[in-house]
From TrEMBL:
Matching Pfam families: Lipocalin
Record organism: Merluccius polli (Benguela hake)
A GO term, aspect molecular function: retinol binding
Protein name from the UniProt record: Cellular retinoic acid-binding protein 1
Domain Cytosolic fatty-acid binding proteins: 7-24
Gene (name only): PMP2
Record-stated family: Belongs to the calycin superfamily. Fatty-acid binding protein (FABP) family.
Coiled-coil boundaries: none
SUPFAM superfamilies: Lipocalins (SSF50814)
Superkingdom as given in the UniProt entry: Eukaryota
Classification via InterPro entries: Calycin, Fatty_acid-bd, ILBP, Lipocln_cytosolic_FA-bd_dom
Amino acid sequence: MVDQFAGTWKMTVSDNFDAYMRAIGVGLATRKMGNVVKPTFIISVDDDGVVTMKTLSHFKSSQITFRLGEEFEEKTADNRLTKTIVTFTDGKLVQTQTWDGKTTTLERTLHSGKLITTCTSGDVVAVRTYEREA
């Protein structure tokens, strides 16, 4: 159930994120900021099953609102316009973005009380770890 992901999460560890951002076409200046920012990530689900994901930081904030399994347009924090779909598969929230013939996947899992986001583009994988805020 998506409800188990609901809450406020603070990023604590980010591995290989620069290579991931480079793989999806993020420019140098944005990558430099993306590498130092430790965003807060908020997931909420309303009574109708609409999911909202907010990423908050001093550099840039973004928000998406969607229903599981329904494609929508997303303007990403790095200004890509993507067709995005989020599914709940095998206990994971799987977000797939497509744009300009490219695809990337952000797979979110819960492990030992932490939210683990695995970002994959081709053979480049980044892992970001978040801890739940009180």
